[in-house]
């Protein structure tokens, strides 16, 4: 009998206990009670003005986040160190270009545009030296661009789903094609960013050479437990927007801590037990603490469109008069699914294959969690090389 290293044993223990917790929260009456408590909390926030930046509650939350970020940066390796050229896009959003470095040669293959979630910073793809997907891909000769959403302010609070898809991702695609002279771009989407990249590819197939998805839900009915909470009739996403405007970073972070409470409680132990991955754990803590606001109206649109109406899956999503459906995807699709993912249900991600023909769909299943898909030790040996091989094999039409 082989004994697991203590750090690996702890990781498995965290995953199993968090899984048990998630299964309980999907059941009644817990799901209904959760919505009731959220509404009472929103009542309090509204009555007291606690959501306003001048209120002591809001000041305390922001101060706590800044202290956590400063503490994490003090002990972690420097993050986001790969050189890039930054181009302004829309509002606070920017486009970051990481030039190919292999033998100093530029490639004629289509460039790669990475679309991240609006919930976290872009540098999960450039975490630190030695754990950077953009540096890896640039080192293989690919031209890499990353959509950096920046820090949303008052202007971004009014963004609708169509503003994000057409006004930001659309402009990012145009900028990439203009800067490189290419006719098409590979879209690589992660989590919420994968949903947006998929929707954009369905709306605008011409400029998309291929679509690469990491931890991305397809059928939102199967994306439990998040759908269980967000689709509860007692929960009104528009009311959250009315109270907060943009959802503050501390609120978004707290929501995800509620999904994996055991992991968040015990990860300091894992951080010091897993010496080989300590830098990754510490740098990830910087990224998690560096929380950003989530554009308010976009959040309400996203919840309503995807989690409640399941509109992309059902083929009922319309953006500026144009229909978007998964069946409209006519580019090759690589779907990388984390079998240990507790943020995006693997069943929801794998459902994409039901809507696409086998000729243009490839699936890669790995025993990794949601964050590990991007920066885990397993990503270096499975996910990153798979993406590189996919890009090489789809370099030309």
């Amino acid at each position: 009998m082989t004994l697991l290293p203590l750090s690996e044993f702890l990781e498995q223990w965290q995953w199993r206990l968090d899984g048990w917790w998630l299964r309980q929260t999907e059941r009644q009456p817990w799901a209904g009670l959760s919505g009731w408590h959220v509404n009472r909390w929103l009542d309090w926030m509204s009555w007291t003005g606690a959501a306003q930046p001048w209120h002591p509650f809001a000041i305390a939350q922001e101060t706590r986040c800044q202290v956590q970020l400063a503490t994490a940066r003090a002990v972690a390796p420097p993050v986001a160190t790969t050189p890039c050229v930054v181009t302004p896009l829309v509002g606070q959003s920017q486009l970051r270009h990481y030039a190919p470095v292999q033998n100093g040669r530029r490639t004629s293959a289509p460039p790669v545009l990475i679309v991240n979630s609006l919930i976290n910073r872009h540098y999960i793809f450039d975490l630190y030296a030695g754990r950077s997907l953009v540096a890896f891909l640039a080192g293989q000769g690919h031209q890499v661009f990353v959509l950096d959403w920046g820090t949303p302010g008052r202007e971004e609070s009014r963004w609708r789903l169509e503003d994000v898809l057409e006004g930001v991702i659309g402009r990012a695609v145009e900028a990439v094609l203009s800067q490189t002279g290419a006719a098409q771009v590979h879209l690589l989407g992660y989590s919420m960013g994968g949903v947006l990249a998929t929707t954009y590819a369905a709306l605008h197939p011409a400029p998309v050479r291929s679509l690469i998805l990491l931890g991305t839900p397809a059928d939102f009915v199967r994306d439990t437990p998040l759908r269980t909470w967000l689709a509860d009739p007692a929960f009104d996403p528009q009311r959250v927007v009315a109270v907060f405007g943009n959802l503050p970073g501390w609120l978004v972070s707290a929501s995800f801590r509620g999904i994996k409470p055991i992991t968040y409680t015990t990860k300091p132990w894992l951080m010091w037990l897993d010496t080989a991955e300590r830098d990754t754990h510490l740098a990830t803590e910087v990224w998690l603490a560096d929380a950003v606001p989530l554009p308010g109206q976009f959040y309400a649109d996203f919840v309503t469109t995807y989690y409640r109406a399941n509109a992309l899956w059902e083929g009922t999503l319309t953006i500026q008069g144009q229909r978007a459906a998964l069946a409209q995807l006519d580019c090759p699709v690589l779907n990388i699914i984390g079998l240990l993912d507790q943020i995006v249900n693997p069943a929801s991600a794998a459902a994409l294959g039901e809507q696409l023909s086998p000729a243009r769909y490839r699936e890669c299943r790995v025993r990794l969690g949601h964050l590990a898909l991007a920066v885990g030790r397993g990503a270096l040996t499975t996910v990153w090389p798979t993406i590189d091989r996919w890009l090489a094999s789809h370099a030309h039409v």
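The chain has a mean pLDDT of 91. The longest strand covers residues 208-214.
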